[in-house]
Each structure stands twice: as C-alpha cells, then as structure tokens.
Write a structure and sequence with these properties.
Layout: H1 10-18, H2 23-30, H3 34-41, H4 49-55
Amino acid sequence: MTGGRTSEDVTELLEEIQGDRTLTKFAEDLRVSKAYLSMVMSNKKPPSDKLLKRAGIRRTVKINYEVFPGAKKEE
C-alpha cells in the first residue's frame, strides 16, 4: 500500500485487510455490524474514525492553497 489514496480507495484498502475472511468474520473482528460494514464497503456510507482505526487505516488531510479567481493583486 502506498500513500495518496482517496476516500474512494477505502473499499479497496478494507478488501486488502479483509483477506479471505467472510464479511461476517471481518465485521466481528472489527467489532462493527455486518450491515454497517457492508454499507461502507459498497460506498453507501463513509467509514467512521473508529472503524478506520480498528482496521489500521489512518485518515490524512492534505491542505492546498490557491488564489481565488478574480482576486486583486496589490499594485
């Protein structure tokens, strides 16, 4: 796994971590309901911080700065 993943990649990361476990077993191991995990893995719900932590996934934030269109420059 490398850095730079997006929120859409969470499903892929969870599938990697799940390995050959069934969804039921994976949900039990993460201490979440099977229904909730299924919704997260089908991109119908965002993953909670607690789920990410239990799965060993860290959410990071990258901050970018840009000039607003039409911004006036000091002369």
